[in-house]
Write a structure and sequence with these properties.
Length: 355
């Protein structure tokens, strides 16, 4: 098992990564204040992993709530069912919520923990690659509103993250690739050496070699933990984590939610960010080609969807959350392994890259 720490003073917490962790009581018990445990999961993950996690809490008061599966259920109404369950079972302030599942379950359970009786503890047990390298770390929690994704939420850090790599064995290949988009992102924004490593080990990662996956998850979590420790509430460098995301969100919205997975849109978005960086003289053509090879190697798309017109993409990007004082800001690359947030590009360059 590999363990690293997210350094946030009194709110610091460990991330454990490895095989066979789900049912290990020693990983959970140090973080429990009381004996009431609510496992929040969904109908896909429950039959696979709920029994293993329950084992870790033998002798304690364990209950579970099984949510429907899907981003479309990340709503206020479905989220409220967690409170119904907690209140029906008279859960007290010293209870602990366990988020067992992908990013949807993690965000919903985390946000419920942030709000129940003004805040209770929770532990992230991520079961998708995306959740293990991204959504379970950093304390962003929330739900969707019909007017926008993740528009209602809170910062609430977990007490621990337990990432069992065995769970990735049942993950659909498309979801694995989507997670690799975020893994690659960490290399592009901060770690050229990791990018070299990913280039050499992509075949192993795609075929789920356990050692390769464990290393990729560890390095990804280290980079994310470092950035979160620098800028917990996203007033500065945390914005770098959005590399490829402004392009990506425009793609997700443009093709209709659910058509492209988030990671797929981010993959194409990273290629577009690289192309714009080259247009502005920051990257070489060879670096852009290498970016395409890396993204394609992870089974991800490298261009915008053909049926999404460049003009429509520009429109969608203009309403992005990262627009500040009317200026669109983008994360661009200075080299492979170093990103910057900037609004210094002209619309023509952007339009050219999208075309
Ligand atoms: P997801 O939670 O929808 O999981 C993808 C699919 O895989 C689901 O059908 C799920 O039931 C299934 N699944 C989960 N684990 C499995 C396993 N081990 N085997 C088989 N199937 C499994 O999607 P995701 O990609 O994990 O997360 C996306 C969500 O995360 C979005 O809602 C996004 O907004 C959020 N997110 C949050 C943050 C953050 O910082 N809080 C960061 C990135 C993404
Ligand atoms: Mg993302």
């Amino acid at each position: 098992m590999r363990t690293l720490t997210v350094e946030l003073g009194a709110r610091s917490y460990p991330i454990h990564i490895g095989s066979g962790l789900l049912s290990d009581p020693d990983l959970y018990r140090p973080h429990l204040r009381g004996s009431q445990i609510m496992i929040v999961t969904n109908e896909t993950v429950a039959p696979l992993y709920l029994a293993s996690v329950r084992q870790a809490f033998d002798g304690l008061h364990v209950r579970e709530i099984i949510l429907p599966d899907g981003e479309v259920y990340k709503t206020l109404e479905v989220w409220n069912r967690i409170f119904d369950a907690l209140l029906a079972e008279r859960f007290a302030r010293d209870c602990t919520l366990i988020a067992l599942g992908g990013g949807v379950v993690g965000d919903m359970a985390g946000f419920a923990a942030a709000c129940y009786q003004r805040g209770v503890d929770f532990i992230q047990v991520p079961t998708t690659l995306l959740a293990q390298v991204d959504s379970s770390v950093g304390g962003k929690t929330g739900i969707n509103h019909p007017a926008g994704k993740n528009m209602i939420g809170a910062f609430h850090q977990p007490r621990a993250v337990i990432a069992d790599t065995d769970t990735l064995g049942t993950l659909p290949q498309r979801e694995l690739s989507a997670g690799l988009a975020e893994v690659l992102k960490y290399g592009f924004i901060r770690d050229a050496e990791f990018l070299d490593w990913l280039e050499c080990h992509m075949t192993g990662l795609m075929s789920r070699d356990p050692d390769a996956l464990a290393h990729a998850i560890q390095r990804s979590c280290e980079v994310k933990a470092q950035i979160v420790a620098e800028d917990e509430f996203e007033s500065g460098s945390r914005a770098l984590l959005n590399l490829g995301h402004t392009f990506g969100h425009a793609i997700e919205t443009g093709v209709g939610y659910g058509e492209w997975l988030h990671g797929e849109a981010v993959g194409a978005g990273i290629c577009l960010a690289a192309a714009l960086s080259a247009r502005l003289g920051r990257l070489t053509e060879a670096e852009v080609e290498r970016t395409h090879r890396l993204i394609a190697g992870a089974g991800l798309p490298t261009a915008r969807p053909e049926n999404l017109a460049p003009e429509r993409m520009l429109e969608l990007m203009a309403v992005d959350k990262k627009v500040l004082a009317g200026r669109l800001r983008l994360v661009l690359l200075r080299q492979l392994g170093e990103a910057v947030v900037t609004s210094e590009f002209d619309r023509d360059a952007l339009a050219h890259v999208l075309a």
